[in-house]
Amino acid sequence: MFFLFSKLLTFLINPLFWLMGGLLWAWLTRNTKRRKHLLIAVTVTFWLLGNPWLANEVLLRWEVPPTPFADVPNNKYKAAIVLMGMTQDSKSPKDRVYFMRGADRLLYAIRLYKESKVKKIIISGAYIDKLSAVTTKGANNVVSICLMAGIPDEDILTDEVSLNTHENAVYTAQILQKNGISPAECIMVTSAFHMRRATLCFRKQGIEALPFPADFYSEDRFFDIGRMTVPSAVAIDRWNILLKEWTGIVVYRLAGYI
């Protein structure tokens, strides 16, 4: 039920839904004045949401800044917690891992391990096919990559059932307890835009992990007339990501997950 509700909410907060709804309303209304106001509103909204400079500025303020590898002391942390959401299973053949955005989550964790910043890697999350809503054991997808990188099987721990960030935190807490790892000895690796909600969820379960954000959507600040004035579909997509994350925080707070 929570999964279906989240998908419906995701559809309703999509900026393209607003723009299409405004255009449809303008087309159907017989009130000339209302039609004019709707078209003006849609045009202004499209320009604001499609402005790459504005979207990047908001992302720069929202995303948790990157943590330099040099700032992570050796032998202080026991595990790097990697949240899934970087692969997809709806593609054949099944003899490989199909990475999407966010693959650097895993790459950062592997580097942390290789540089003796952590002793184990915890991969948390199942995979949900966006079309069929079928759940598969997503963590298994990337274990093979860790093994190919030379990480021993005993140093790879997995949660293969969690379907959202709340469950990531719950099942990871169980893994830590089972393996005698202190909740204060962890590094959490997830997308920079998602780090704030993830941190709150894990803190609710008593896990005070060091944030190590990856998968940045923001760029270093830029000033370019073209990118500050010409709308871009990429910018609208950035706003969609932010709106989903902000809505997720509100929903999680209402549900008592954070």
Explain this structure.
This protein has 258 residues and is α/β, with parallel strands linked by helices. The protein has helices spanning 2-12, 15-28, 32-49, 52-62, 103-114, 139-148, 165-178, 195-204, 225-229, 233-255, and strands spanning 79-83, 120-124, 127-128, 135-136, 156-159, 186-189, 210-211. Helix 4 packs parallel to helix 10 (233-255). The two termini are 19 Å apart. It has two domains: 2-63 and 232-255, no CATH class; 69-211, HUPs (Rossmann fold, 3-Layer(aba) Sandwich).
The total beta strand count reads 7
CATH level 1 name of the largest domain: Alpha Beta
Largest sheet: 5 strands, parallel
Q: Kindly report how far apart the N and C termini lie.
A: 19 Å
Q: What class, by secondary structure content?
A: alpha/beta
Quickly give the CATH architecture of the largest domain. Answer: 3-Layer(aba) Sandwich
CATH superfamily of the largest domain: HUPs
Order of the strands making up the biggest sheet: 5-2-1-6-7
- Which bin fits the share of residues in helices? 40-55%
Overall body shape: elongated
How large, in whole angstroms, is the Cα Rg?
21 Å
Counted up, domains total 2
User: From N to C, what is the helix and strand string?
Assistant: HHHHEHEEEHEHEHEHH
Looking at the structure, the CATH topology of the largest domain is: Rossmann fold
- Kindly report the average pLDDT value: 90
Give the percentage of residues in beta strands. Answer: 5-15%
